[in-house]
Write a structure and sequence with these properties.
mainly beta, four-stranded antiparallel β-sheet
Length: 127
């Protein structure tokens, strides 16, 4: 079964950190661009970050620049999103997605082209 399996997430206080993981099952991520998206209640799904298949190109939403870091370990077939200095407005369900015909420079508008999606992980930032 080809799928992305997410782990991480949870409840954290403002200023805290969390790491999300996105592992591929049944296929390898080597040729895939990976995007992270989030969706807060009552809002549309929004782009958070993206990393190219080689890892040489990354992209971040302005709201998370300097706080979030995307990385990948192709040997482990896993992509990570390290989230530091979390704020209440970061509260959302976070999704990872893998696409072969997606470029990081346009990963948000190319959202329909992602081939696989993770199951989502709830991140709640609250005191």
């Amino acid at each position: 079964q080809l799928q992305l399996v997410q782990s991480g997430g949870g409840l954290v206080q403002p200023g805290g950190s969390l790491r999300l993981s996105c592992a591929a099952s049944g296929f390898t991520l080597d040729d895939y661009t990976i995007g992270w998206f989030r969706q807060a209640p009552g809002k549309e799904r929004a782009g958070v970050s993206c990393i190219s298949s080689s890892g040489g190109d990354t992209n971040y939403a302005d709201s998370v620049k300097g706080r979030f870091t995307i990385s990948r370990d192709n040997a482990k077939n896993t992509v990570y999103l390290q989230m530091n200095s979390l704020k209440p407005e970061d509260t959302a369900v976070y999704y990872c997605a893998a696409g072969r015909s997606v470029y990081c420079s346009g990963y948000v508008v190319l959202m329909p082209r992602f081939d696989f999606w993770g199951q989502g992980a709830q991140v709640t930032v609250s005191s």
